[in-house]
Amino acid sequence: MKKYPNDPGPEPQYRWRETWPGEGHEDYAAFDGPRQFGRIMLETNGTMRMQWRWSISHIDGVKRHILPHTGWLSHPRVAAAQVEDLYERLMELNGLALNSRRS
């Protein structure tokens, strides 16, 4: 995500790692401690070309969900912020503790 200096989104609050390191994909997974909770990826083909798809992963203990849990945004940090916000809301809704809050 560091390749996009003009991204209007906030700095990530959690740890984001490349999903496929070294393969050149624009694809990142979000972690709260050891818990993976979301993902963003750049679409390079089709009607959503150059849009960032964001999604929440399956999270152990989450029984109640918030929709939508996936979507498209124009910038990676904006998409990451959407994932982080939804993750925190899901954890609160389900009475689950956050592990950390760091980038």
Structural overview:
This protein is of the alpha+beta class and 103 residues long. It is 17% helix and 26% strand. The chain has a five-stranded antiparallel sheet with strand order 1-2-3-4-5, covered by helices on one side. The mean pLDDT is 92.
Main sheet strand line-up:
1-2-3-4-5
Helical percentage: 10-25%
Give the N-terminus to C-terminus distance in angstroms.
Answer: 12 Å
Number of helical elements = 1
How much is the average pLDDT?
Answer: 92
Which radius of gyration do the C-alpha atoms yield?
13 Å
- Structural class assignment: alpha+beta
Biggest sheet features = 5 strands, antiparallel
Net shape? globular
* Beta-strand fraction estimate: 25-35%
N-to-C SSE string, H for helix and E for strand: EEEEEH
Number of strands: 5
**Low-pLDDT sequence parts:** none
